[in-house]
What does this fold into?
Amino acid sequence: MIRFQEVGKTYPDGTIAVENFSYEVREGRIVALVGASGSGKTTLLRMVNRMVEPTSGSVWVDGRNVSDVDRVQLRRSIGYVLQAGGLLPHRTIIDNVATVPLLNGEPKKKARRAAEELLERVGLEVGMGKRYPAQLSGGQQQRVGVARALAADPKVLLMDEPFGAVDPIVRKELQVELRRLQAELGKTVILVTHDVDEAFNVGHDVVLLAKGGEIVQSGTPEEILSSPKDQYVRQFIGADRAERQFTIEEINGQRLIFDGDGRPAGILQQ
Ligand SMILES: Nc1ncnc2c1ncn2[C@@H]1O[C@H](COP(=O)(O)OP(=O)(O)OP(=O)(O)O)[C@@H](O)[C@H]1O
It folds into this structure.
């Protein structure tokens, strides 16, 4: 449903951010792009909604080359979640969530009612809608960011380090909630992260990138964890650390991860 076809991006100053990247994101999946800083993750993500134009190749969403779609229309039809929520500070939470539907011409009352429902969906109380972003915790702001991205009911959600600014416990909670929400709503999600644990926790598929957007390995978390392709991947995913010598077993219909000492280390969500 989202297809990167031999895309490349060389920025005007000559920096080659992405050289020749091809990948297909299947509908209704969460794909995590993970890699070191500067490997081209954000550049790739932004090519989907034309915040970055490729200098070679093409990106296709639902069978349409995005370069043929009006930029404003495209951006409003694709949800985008940024680190720290990217909320408008002088607007209330409810108005932040309702921004795109209002821009799309929805009547104010209807847009606000839909925004309230979305707040509940992402686990916030409706009463919070009256507050301003600065009156919310980092984790709450992130939830609002997700609600806002969902407001126009997009089929595709792009998330750039969405949980980068929150503490590890809240981060874990938000990761679990994202999986729940995605299962409920069936969106196709591309998530950019430099945190390999996050990629494995959240992604149905994981794409491990090196400089220039080179795909080092891609596959399900199980595939990568159980057979890292080479020493680089082993190092990147920490497979040499005892706690990362994972095995995966299915117990009572759930896939559990066990670490090198045989302790359960987590659950892979369906
Ligand atoms: N507007 C720009 N002009 C010039 N070079 C850029 C621009 N944006 C990004 N780059 C360069 O392109 C390369 C890839 O950047 P990108 O932001 O896509 O990587 P990333 O993997 O998302 O990195 P990070 O994890 O640090 O956000 C980097 O070397 C970066 O410095």
Summary: The longest strand covers residues 16-25. The chain has two domains: 2-239, 241-269.
